[in-house]
Amino acid sequence: MRSVVSVSFPRSGHHLLERCLRGVFPGEVHYCDFYRHCRRSPCIDARTNLQKTHDFNLRLTRAPGYLYVVQFRHPLEAIVSWYEAELRHRHKSRIGEPPLRRAVKLTFVNDSEVYWRFFLAKYLRFWRKFVHKWAVDPQPGTILLAYPALVLHPQEELTRIAEAVATGDRPTADRIRSVVEAQHIAARRSIRGFRYFDEERFARLEDGLAADLAALGLPRVVRVGASQHG
């Protein structure tokens, strides 16, 4: 398998992709989580051929010979999912905290709408910078992988990625199908069930993201069916 750096916005399906690649290329994937391991990219271990990073400081530079798989998602979906994941872990000790929280030096205070609004504003800014660096006008050696495509059309998307990273025989359609079926991929959960969902506020935010969503081919999730250009 080719050497791949997976640059993903948080909660955009990286671990689903990792599990799928392990299934398609059994015994070939040598994995590095940037935040748990060496905190360098490319990884200092020459055996590594799949590295995860979120490029939180937006300083990651490309290395010759590596394929960059860039994963992204509608920011409201991703940030709601990220916030809820932090809630699930907020009572853990510092030693037991998820590396994602340590990586961004996030001090998660008690759940409140005020804190949610702060969290949303902070990571909307990060999302915009992330996608403009990596996805809106991708450089050669980049494969884009949108979360909706991965969960709605997993066999087609995994085939596309697997063919790009394979160094030997291409994996068969039957192999990819069996790997996808083993994942039991769930349907995307609507953000309307989120405790702080505010349709008017979320719609205004989505309107402000219309140009970026259109550039990335991401559908709206609040005003479904509205023009991507407002």
Walk me through the structure:
This protein is α/β, with parallel strands linked by helices. It has one domain (4-216): Rossmann fold, CATH 3.40.50. The chain contains nine helices and five strands; from the N terminus they run E-H-E-E-E-H-H-H-E-H-H-H-H-H. A five-stranded parallel beta sheet has the order 2-3-1-4-5. Helix 2 (75-89) packs across helix 4 (113-134). The protein is globular and about 50 Å long. The termini are far apart. Residues 93-99 have low confidence and may be disordered.
What oligomeric state do these chains adopt?
single chain
Describe the global form.
Answer: globular
**Relative helix content:** 40-55%
- Spans of at least 5 consecutive residues whose pLDDT stays below 50 are 93-99
Layout: helices, strands, pairs:
Elements: E1 4-8, H1 14-24, E2 31-33, E3 50-53, E4 67-72, H2 75-89, H3 99-103, H4 113-134, E5 142-146, H5 147-152, H6 154-165, H7 173-183, H8 199-208, H9 210-216
Parallel strand pairs: 1-3, 1-4, 2-3, 4-5
Helix pairs in contact: 1-7, 2-4, 6-7
